[in-house]
Write a structure and sequence with these properties.
single chain; alpha/beta; Rossmann fold; 5-stranded parallel sheet
């Protein structure tokens, strides 16, 4: 894995510490830093990093809005956003996922976990463990009032899924990776990945994290 990373955090101490951790890995390179969401958006358009480590609470433009603009830009479709958060900010996590973030990780995480998180997101997976998924869904998705949905929202194409694709979506919603889905359904990891990609296309989802939200908000789970 060789990946480029952009750091977006308004605290210089955090950026310095995270940069040191990332650059301890020979496979990762920090290509830029941003102190707010607007700078992050500009740097992403200029540098095209593989992964953006995005803080949520930042001045001028917060991380959620910056994530939304990055993930909604077709020219930046290869860029993945990994949210850096603290426990106190978990009420914003679902909004970040809805905006297109591929997952989240705590600022106090172990160095090896941070490196693995970047690798996971860069590889196209979402960083949502089953425990974290249940916590988020129970606290936010199920408690949220129903919202009007249009054809551009991920839930819109649910009726177009095959029975197998619905089965795969349920496993994605449970926090399983492609390899775990493959083991559960007795198929190859590449076949599992193909199913997930087709579901994303049909549900207009940017990544697996949005599939989790769609599965619960639609009532499928």
């Amino acid at each position: 894995m060789n990946a480029t990373v952009l750091l977006a955090d308004d605290q210089s101490l955090i950026r310095t510490a995270v940069r040191a951790l990332i650059e301890s890995s020979p496979d990762l390179t920090v290509v830029g830093e941003a102190t707010n969401g607007q700078e992050a958006l500009e740097q992403v358009r200029l540098l095209r990093p593989d992964v953006v480590l995005m803080d949520i609470r930042m001045p001028i433009m917060d991380g959620i809005e910056a994530t939304k603009q990055i993930c909604n830009d077709p020219d930046l479709s290869e860029v993945r956003v990994l949210v850096l958060t603290t426990f106190e900010e978990d009420e914003y996590i679902v909004e970040a996922l809805r905006a297109g973030a591929s997952g989240f990780i705590g600022k106090g995480t172990e160095p090896t976990a941070l490196i693995q998180a970047i690798a996971t997101v860069h590889g196209g997976e979402s960083l949502l463990s089953p425990v974290a998924t249940r916590l988020l869904v129970d606290r936010y998705v199920r408690a949220a009032p129903p919202k009007a949905r249009t054809r551009t929202t991920p839930v819109a194409g649910l009726d177009e899924l095959t029975d197998r694709e619905r089965e795969v979506l349920l496993l994605v919603a449970a926090g399983l990776s492609n390899s775990e889905i493959a083991q559960r359904l007795f198929i190859s990891p590449s076949t599992a990945k193909t199913h997930v990609n087709r579901i994303m296309t049909k549900l207009y989802a940017h990544d697996r994290a949005q599939l989790v939200i769609a599965a619960y908000e639609s009532g499928l789970v």
